[in-house]
Sequence to fold (242 residues):
Amino acid sequence: MTINITVWNEFRHEQTNEAVIAVYPAGIHQTIKAFLKKDEQFNVRTATLDQPDHGLTPDVLDSTDVLIWWGHAAHAEVRDDIVEKVCQRIRGGMGLIVLHSGHFSKVFKRITGANCGLKWRDVGEKCRVWNVKPNHPIAAGVDECIELEHEEMYGEPFGIPDPDELVFMSWFKGGEVFRSGCVFNVERGKVFYFQPGHETYPIYHHEGIQKIISNACKYVAPTAEIIDTNVGNWIKVPLEEV
Ligand code: ZN
Fold:
């Protein structure tokens, strides 16, 4: 079955910061789209902040099974009405994958109901992403540990609700650890948060990272019809029919 994926990117650093342009000349969203497109099961398109409705028009959203979200500097510019539409579709069954600094996005905060704060330090230190649940579908075919030579440190405590499934934990050379691959069930939808992906390092060019994101798209994809749970769970059932 085809999975319709929309890769959403803030797409600001890649237009202004030379260090980021060097790593992602066409934007992080295009790099993610390019590796996902190798899987014939995926139908992939992109959306960015500065497009009308941030690229998330009703037509796009209504035909998205899995939404991938990368944002950093402009979280506040994302319109609240779009955030609510995205969250309502997740509650109805759409999958969401939140990457790296998307932890502070309005969408992730709203869907988790938490502040999602963390510790951070960007000195380009070594990061080991440990596969702590090798029997999980998101970890299928993934090594015991992915070593990233340079990554921004994200550290605990991470201000999220306890995840329903913890698939990856990261260690940083400075000594901190971080719950870096977390699954949350929200009504009919699934949300996966994945830490790697600071914009100045070639994280999304790493085959192991690509494998995890690809696996996650299949895992969070809806397995039933996506419905509007604002009305779908409000059904009067007459007693005589019980
Ligand atoms: Zn970062």
User: Anything to note?
Assistant: The chain has one domain: 3-116+181-241. The first strand starts at residue 3 and ends at 9. Residues 27 and 152 are 19 Å apart (CA to CA). Residues 207-220 form the longest helix (14 residues).
